[in-house]
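Sample 3 of the quickstart, ligand pyridoxal-5'-phosphate:
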Amino acid sequence: MDRIVYLDNAATTKIKPEVFEEMKPFFAECFGNPSAQYGFVTPVKKKIELCRRNIAELLNASEDEIYFTSGGTESDNWAIKSIAEKYKTKGKHIITSCIEHHAVLNTMKWLEENGYRITYTPVDKNGIIDLDFLQKSIDDETILISIMTANNEIGSIQPIKRIGEIARKNKIVFHTDAVQAYGHIPIDVKKMKIDMLSASGHKIYGPKGIGVLYVRNGVKIGSFIHGGSQEFGLRAGTYNTPGIVGMGKASEIAIRFMSDNEKVRDTRNLLLKKIETEIPKVFLNGDIENRLPNNLSITFEGVDSEALLTMLSENGIYASSGSACTSGDTKPSHVLKAIGLSDKDIKSTIRFSVSDDTTADDIEYAIKVLKGCVSALR
Ligand code: PLP
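Result:
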């Protein structure tokens, strides 16, 4: 294949060379188990704590509020199941949204099967949750509100500060799945009154299989993975040192990069402008203002998205029809359904997600191919 244009960065990102370089010694010369007592592992311990500091800094949290996990899925499971267990004597009611990632939705489903009552807040046509509905859903038994910071399919950014204020006023724990938002848009857990937050390394040009759960000091959580005394005795398992180092370095880069993420937004806007001007009968899904800078969700009316994705990939262009975890699923996207798309339009929708490496030249090539494929399929 002559050329590859990777436009599926919401599924995963390519690791940055400087992140990979930083990780390398921790596979080889600094291989020691950081839980050991001898001096050989002191640099490893120090590095892990430095990474925890970078992550805390990105969120305006304290180091002792950052717990390393195996990724966003584990962080979501841990946050939700742990609050459900710890606060069950107060009540068994949880509020979430109907557009969450399956890491949250299937955890809620499991809790429902185990006697919990779950309220799913609807969203408007732009994918922004109905705050009034959320507020009215709170009752004496509500123990947790879990609403994602930004959606993985349509990029919509939720009014997190408002949700945090509502939760705090009602003395309810507020968890947010920030896997798509962490390192891409500014998040301040103090200002936004966030009690728990999930993040993942592989969405920010870091490695896969590493994530973080932020837990505000004062929020009671229990152990989720039982075993040794790592992570303040709450998350057992030998440290994934290279992964932690990668996530720490990627977070450090994100701190610098986020103040300058107009480049990503400009690239995404260029792609949108070209699609809208060069391809007829298309529309954008989600809010253009309250939206992740890298995300586009486009419906190509009358075009089968699976056929289009196949044609695009034959030409080296990689995008997706929605969440990477549900591709191959025959069920229409619950997110696109929630914003009111017909089944027909859902089957004609593609998600493009650019990176800070995507160039104007990549966009030119992608548009040329896309135009040809759409017209051939129509
Ligand atoms: N939450 C959201 C919003 C996601 O987009 C993803 C991954 O795509 C996850 C959770 C799961 O994260 P991980 O792949 O790190 O388990």
